[in-house]
Design brief:
Largest sheet: 4 strands, mixed
Number of domains: 2
Strand content: 5-15%
Radius of gyration: 20 Å
CATH topology of the largest domain: Peroxidase, domain 1
CATH architecture of the largest domain: Orthogonal Bundle
Number of helices: 8
Distance between the termini: 38 Å
Structural class: alpha+beta
Order of helices and strands: HHHHHHEHEEEH
Helix content: 55-70%
CATH class of the largest domain: Mainly Alpha
Strand order of the largest sheet: 2-1-3-4
Length: 186
């Protein structure tokens, strides 16, 4: 792992542990999960928000004021709002994506869930996602929460990542394997 990525994940892990413990003690894990979903959606949808998090042109005070206003507008809990304010004053907002991922993992572990990243050629229907979740739950032995994305270059099939395991049933992977076998023969 590269040094900057390692530093970022280390910083995020410390913040995540503190925020999770505070939310757990205050019985606010449900609110924390909602806040995480809101922040994740904001980071995905708003280029301006991502710029605010990572751009060095904003002062600490500007970042703190902007984050406080955004937290109020998003309806975030006091714990998350205060954490974002602290991160802004310490110039640590750039680790927010890793913080969200670490908090998601901590909440899932607390609930006895595991996250499965599923990439498919076209979006899964609700019935397909539920069936896949049940099948994976039987294999893993825990409840499985699916994070689905679409990649049309797969042509068909799925790529499923659960923890350190990956299952690639995509047509793209099968064609690549066939191409390798044909190269070996000729």
């Amino acid at each position: 792992m590269s040094e900057p990525a390692s530093i970022s994940s280390g910083i995020a892990a410390r913040y995540a542990t503190a925020v999770f413990d505070i939310a757990k003690d205050d019985k606010g894990l449900a609110a924390l999960e909602t806040d995480i979903d809101t922040l994740d959606a904001a980071m995905g949808e708003s280029a301006d928000f991502r710029d605010l998090l990572s751009s060095p042109i904003y002062t600490r005070d500007e970042q703190a004021q902007a984050v406080a206003a955004l937290a109020d507008a998003m309806g975030l809990s006091a714990t998350v709002k205060n954490t974002l304010g602290l991160m802004a004053t310490k110039r640590r907002l750039f680790v927010l994506p890793q913080l969200v991922a670490a908090l998601r993992a901590a909440i899932a572990e607390h609930k006895g869930e595991v996250m499965a990243e599923v990439v498919s050629a076209k979006s899964l229907t609700k019935a397909q996602a539920e069936k896949l979740s049940k099948t994976l739950a039987a294999t893993v032995g825990k409840d499985v929460k699916i994070k689905a994305t679409v990649d049309e270059s797969l042509i068909g099939g799925l790529v499923v990542k659960v923890g350190s395991r990956m299952i690639d049933t995509s047509i793209r992977a099968k064609l690549a394997a066939l191409q390798n076998v044909m190269k070996e023969v000729g």
